[in-house]
Specification:
Blueprint lengths: L10 H6 L14 E7 L5 E7 L1 H4 L4 E6 L21 E2 L5 E7 L2 H10 L1 E6 L18 E2 L3 E2 L2 E3 L2 H7 L2 E9 L11 E6 L5 E5 L4 H11 L7 E4 L15 H13 L3 E4 L2 H7 L6 E9 L5 E13 L12 H4 L4 E11 L12 H19 L3 H7 L17 H12 L18 E13 L6 E6 L5 E4 L9 H13 L6 E4 L16 H18 L5 E5 L1 H5 L7 E13 L5 E11 L6 H20 L5 E2 L4 E2 L17 E6 L23 H13 L10 H4 L4
Parallel strand pairs: 1-14, 12-13, 16-17, 20-21, 24-27
Antiparallel strand pairs: 1-5, 2-4, 2-6, 3-5, 7-8, 9-17, 10-15, 11-12, 11-14, 15-16, 18-23, 19-20, 19-22, 23-24, 25-26
Length: 685
């Protein structure tokens, strides 16, 4: 069977509109919710005047801290919806209106009279902020700091040095489908939620805890999800609010978070300030690496992005320091956004490597090859496979790297409007291993049914899992049905950390193998927890190389990207069409990070100014010209039964650095603060 050729299974349902998303399920007696957000950045709610709103025809309920049911703590205070009068950031939920129609709910929300006792707020990220502190761990549970050797002394003694500070702004996830929920309680007090999420199992478990229910009394249904990029990896306040409103009104309640509300309620990538110091000998071999990160969290819940952890993986140096420090500010809590940690961390590291190549007079591709390693620089574990050098060489050949022009030494000559340059960056992402459950069954008609609570957020997971099941069952994919997206199915880990196919695929393979081993067996159920816990101790990571060409208008500072190429080594590719889509999708997001994406904080009001897609810019078709991704097949037997590594996130890692390095090659100007916009570039051209 050729799994590479399997077409997306749910494509017909999606293009004909038969695929139902969370907000689209038909339910009798449904009501609609509209949420009210705080206009103050910090303070307390003094009073809520709801009489005028409640008098409006069609209004069923106004929900706030005054009548909200008590919720159980879950370790994330963002989910403690309406549990106090405290306002911790501008945009926080303070009330909601439930009505017969969405239009009535929105109009009635305007009639609420909420008064506040406002306090001064602080939203400024700063490396010398007085609230700076060291978190216990960084996401998910990595050590906050690492140090080996004498980094400061070795750096000072190195003949070639780079000392530079890079910054990245806050960036907001903007999946096509906003966060949406339909919640209803049955007569026995059981909760059913149709929800847009990246993991029905974790959503069920969290909601059960929040409402003090046994897990068997909560069901979360999400067969189709319109994107997430990490923002739907864990339940957000919106789904808790929908369930709360349904309980108070005794009606099914639909709530779709508006695009504007998503900028406060559904997480974002923290801004970062990163100081990189690299010390090397005259041949460019690293002797010292120091990567120090400052980022923000909220006063509500701590989230510490693992920005410098990637430096512990990439290049060997006997003297190495990585650290993370947080500002606790009056802002919404940051969270996961595609390749959290690796994306901003590799931007800074790979730009610093480019600066080191310039300082040492070495080609940037060659510099990275000289600093390759067979073992993790921190920890010393051998890599199960690491084909970074192969990716760099393959990419350099395909991209015609030898045609790269030298960096200009002065201002452009008169009449030279277009400046061209090429840049390169390495990329990596962990090949996470997570356990899970799966069931496989023979049907009376000779077909097979596989069941697992996995989540397809638009990546094609349903198709990839069908191919994996068919291969394990030694049958054609047309004879296999895979059921996913329902917490009533065997438990599965979240679709996050590019771990879905690897973890779910392991469980499905084992269930299908067990079924096939006994012809008289009708159904097999497996749990891979023990198998995963006994995996050999090796470092499992995907690697790759990003290449970019830019065209800079010397008169306007406008930057175009005519070409991008990604070359990846990520084990066995399960489906070539889906893989190519994931790679170039990540690379496109990396282009957005480099040139466009920026959530602009207004310090006076304590809120992001550009909280819609008219002002928060993401790449469009005109921004992405010739973009391609290829891969090197790896035979890595220490991964999972399929031999695959995750591919959903590695495409974005390094892409912004490749573009930034290309801008330097084109102009001779180094912009270290993303995004690289004409307003930053033109004054220094």
């Amino acid at each position: 069977m050729n799994t590479l050729s399997l077409k997306r299974i749910e494509s017909r349902e999606k293009i004909t509109g038969r695929a139902r998303y969370a907000y689209e399920y038909p339910v009798d007696g449904v009501a609609y919710l509209y949420a009210v957000q705080s206009p103050v950045g910090k303070g307390r709610i003094r009073s809520i005047g709801a009489d005028e709103a409640l008098a409006m025809p069609g209004v069923l309920q106004v929900v706030s801290h005054e009548n909200a049911p008590r919720l159980e703590p879950v370790g994330n205070a963002e989910l403690a919806v309406f549990q106090s009068r405290t306002v911790s950031y501008r945009g926080q939920l303070v009330a909601a209106v439930v009505a017969e129609t969405p239009e009535t709910a929105q109009e009635a929300a305007r009639l609420l009279r909420v008064e506040y006792d406002a306090e001064p707020h602080d939203v400024r990220l700063s490396p010398d902020h007085p609230t700076l502190y060291r978190p216990d761990v960084v996401n998910p549970d990595y050590p906050t700091d690492t140090e080996q050797g004498d980094p400061e002394g070795a750096f000072a003694a190195s003949p070639v040095r780079v000392d530079a500070t890079y910054s990245t702004p806050a960036e907001h996830n903007n999946p096509m489908e906003p966060h949406a929920s339909l919640a209803l309680w049955d007569e026995e007090g059981n909760l059913v939620v149709y929800d847009s999420n990246q993991g029905p199992t974790i959503a069920r478990n969290t909601l059960a805890q929040v409402f003090g229910l046994d897990r068997s009394r909560v069901r979360v249904v999400s067969p189709h999800v319109g994107g997430g990029f990490g923002s739907k990896g864990t339940p957000r306040p919106s789904v808790v609010l929908a369930a709360m409103a349904a309980r108070l009104t005794g009606r099914p309640v639909k709530y779709a978070v508006t695009r504007q509300q998503m900028f406060a309620l559904t997480g974002y990538r923290t801004p970062t300030v990163q100081r990189l110091r690299l010390g090397a000998d005259g041949d460019g071999r690293l002797n010292a690496i120091l990567h120090e990160v400052v980022e923000q969290t909220s006063t509500v819940h701590e989230f510490a992005e693992q920005t410098a952890v990637v430096t512990r993986v990439m290049y060997p140096a006997p003297n190495l320091l990585t650290s993370h420090r947080l500002n606790r500010l009056d802002v919404p809590t940051p969270s996961w956004m595609r390749a959290p940690g690796e994306t901003p961390g590799m931007y800074a590291l790979e730009c610093a490597m480019d600066e080191l190549a310039v300082a040492a007079g070495i080609d940037p591709v060659e510099l990275r090859i000289r600093n390759d390693t067979d073992t993790e620089p921190v920890g010393g574990l051998p890599f199960s496979s690491r084909n970074l050098v192969a990716c760099l060489r393959e990419g350099a050949e395909r991209f015609h790297w030898e045609d790269r022009e030298p960096v200009p030494s002065g201002v452009p000559a008169p009449g030279t409007r277009k400046l061209r340059g090429m840049g390169v960056a390495a990329t990596t992402y962990p090949a996470y291993q997570r356990s899970g459950q799966a069931a496989a069954r023979r049907e009376p008609d000779g077909r097979f049914r596989v069941r697992i609570a996995a989540s397809d957020i638009g990546t094609g997971a349903r198709t990839a899992l069908t191919a994996i099941a068919a291969e394990a069952l030694k049958t054609d994919p047309s004879r296999v049905t895979v059921e996913i997206g329902d917490s009533s199915l065997p438990e599965a880990a979240v679709a996050g950390g590019s771990s879905g196919t690897a973890g779910w695929g392991r469980a499905i393979t084992r269930a299908c193998e067990a079924l096939l081993a006994d012809p008289d067996r009708q159904e097999a159920f497996v749990d891979t927890a023990q198998e995963v816990s006994e995996l050999p101790k090796v470092a499992r990571h995907g690697f790759g190389a990003q290449f970019a060409e830019v065209e800079v208008d010397a008169d306007t500072g406008e930057i175009r990207v005519p070409r991008m190429l990604g070359v990846f080594a990520v084990g066995r590719i399960i489906n070539s069409t889906l893989a190519h889509s994931q790679f170039i999708g990540g690379m496109t997001m990396g282009l957005g990070m480099a040139l466009l994406e920026e959530s602009v904080m207004d310090r006076e009001f304590g809120d992001y100014l550009n909280h819609d897609l008219a002002q928060y810019h993401v790449p469009a078709c005109a921004d992405v010209r010739d973009i391609d991704a290829v891969w090197i097949e790896e035979a890595d037997g220490r991964l999972n039964p399929m031999g695959s590594k995750g591919i959903g996130e590695i495409g974005i890692v390094g892409a912004a650095a490749a573009i930034a390095n290309a801008v330097y090659n084109a102009t001779g100007v180094r912009i270290r603060d993303l995004p690289i916009t004409p307003s930053k570039l033109l004054p220094v051209l």
